[in-house]
Amino acid sequence: MKTKTPICDFIKKYNEQKYARFHMPGHKGKNILGYEQSDITEILGADSLYEAKGIIAESEKNAAELFGTQKTLYSAEGSSLCIRAMLYLIAAHSQNEGRRPLVVATRNAHKAFVLAVSLLNIDVAWLESETENNGLCSSFVSAQGLDKALSSLPTPPTAVYITSPDYLGNIADIAGLSKVAHKYKSLLLVDNAHGAYLKFLDNNMHPIDNGADMCCDSAHKTLPALTGAAYLHIGKKAPAYLAENARLAMAMFGSTSPSYLILQSLDSVNGMLFDGYQDNIRGAASRLSYNKRKMEQKGWTFAKIDEPLKLTVDARENGYDGNKLAKLLISAKVMPEYYDHDYIVLMVSGETGYEDLNALQNALNAIPIKKKQIKPTFNVPHNAVMSMKEALTKPSKTVAVSEADGCVLACPTVSCPPAIPILFGGEQITPEAIEMFTYYGIKEVKVVE
Q1: What pairs with residue 428 in β-bridges?
Q2: Which 3 state secondary structure label does DSSP give 368?
Q3: 85 and 55 in contact (C-beta within 8 Å)?
Q4: Alpha helices of 166-235 — where are they, by DSSP H?
Q5: β-strand 409-411 against 444-448: which pairing, if any?
Q6: Could you tell me whether strands 102-106 and 123-127 are parallel, antiparallel, or unpaired per DSSP bridges?
Q7: Residues 19, 28: contact at Cβ < 8 Å?
Q8: Mean pLDDT of successive 10-residue stretches along the chain, which has 449 residues
Q9: Do residues 273 and 266 make contact, with C-beta atoms less than 8 angstroms apart?
C-alpha cells in the first residue's frame, strides 16, 4: 500500500538512526526548544522543495490526488509565495504569446498581490464592487458584471483575479466567473487562502472544482497545518505551461531554506484527510450552525456570508463599534481572528468543539444588544497618476496621514490581518482616502517624493 505521509515517515526513520548531525544549529537535532529533531535540512533522501523528485514530490502528488488538481505544490511561506508565483506564471505565459500581461482584479486584493504586480510590472484593471460599501474586506462582482467589464476592454486580459472567500466569509460565484473568463480566453486566478477546507464539505465549494485555473490555499488557516503552510493548485484544464513551470515560479520567490517542519505538517494533513478528517470539518460546520441559530434567537445579528466555518458579527447592527465589542469578548476569554469598527470575524476549524462555541455564545449573551448604529460609507476616488511599479521604485518618504493630501502613494502600508490596501501605489491621496485611512487606524503612509 502506498504511504500517504512519506515526509513524516522519512523523518521518523532518520531520527531513529541517531546520526551525529554536522549541520547548522537549527538542524542538529539537539532538543533545546523541543522540536529540533524533526527540523532537518536537505540531507540524502530528504528531497529538496524546489527540485523535488523524491518524498516531497510524492507528498505533493498525494495532495494533488486529494484536491483533484493537475499539479499541487507546497509553500512553506504561506499563500503570499503562491500569489507571486501565479502572477509570474501568467506574466510569462502572456509574454510567450506576444502580448503584455494584463490582470483584471477586485480591489480587495491582498497586499502580496499588489506588491507582486508592481514588481513584475503587470498592468491591472480594477473591478469596482457592485454592492454597497462593506469596508475594506469585501468586493462583490457578478458574472454579468465581469462580462460587462471584459467586453469593454480593448483586448481580453491575461487573467481575472478574485479573492474568495474574502476575510468576512463571502464566497464569489467562481463557476459563473470562470465561464465568463474562459469565454474571453482569460485565465481565472483565485486567492483562496481562507478556503482550503471548502474541498471537503458535502457541498464542494473549492475554486479548482468550480473552474479556476490556479488558486492558492493557506493550509494553516483552515486545515491543521503549521503557520506558513500553503498550496499552489493548478486545475486539470489549465494550460500545461503553468504546471510545467510552476516549481520554477515558486523557486524564484521562495527561500532556499524552506522549513521542513512546515513541510511535515502539510504531509501530516494529507494523512489526516485520507483518514477521514473531512468528518471533523463537516462536524465543526454543523456545530457552528447550531450555535449560530441559538445566538440569533437571542437577538444577535451576523453578516450573511457563505463560509460554513466562519462567524462574522455585524457589530453596528447590534449597536456597537466592533473594536469595543471585541474587547468585551476578549475580556470574557474569547479571542477573535480579526475585528474593526464594523465587523468581528471568528474562525472555526475541525478542532472547534461545543466547549469553545458555548464559551462564545455565553460571552455574547452576557452583552446587551443596543440600538443599531449606521455604518459610515466611503467614496474614495481612485486616480492613478503613475504605474504601481514606477511608484514603488521612485524615492519615497513616510508622512503622517493627516499631511498626505495630494501626495501619491508609493506602496501599501497595511498590516495583516486583513492586509487589504485602501489605495494602491501610484494613486493620489485625497481627503476621502485620508478619512478612510483614519477610520482603519492607519496613521502613516509612504508617499512618492
Answers
A1: 408
A2: coil
A3: no
A4: 174-183, 219-222
A5: antiparallel
A6: parallel
A7: no
A8: 81 85 68 77 92 96 98 97 98 90 95 94 92 77 97 96 95 98 98 97 96 97 93 97 97 94 95 94 95 96 94 96 95 92 93 92 95 90 93 95 95 79 93 92 94
A9: no
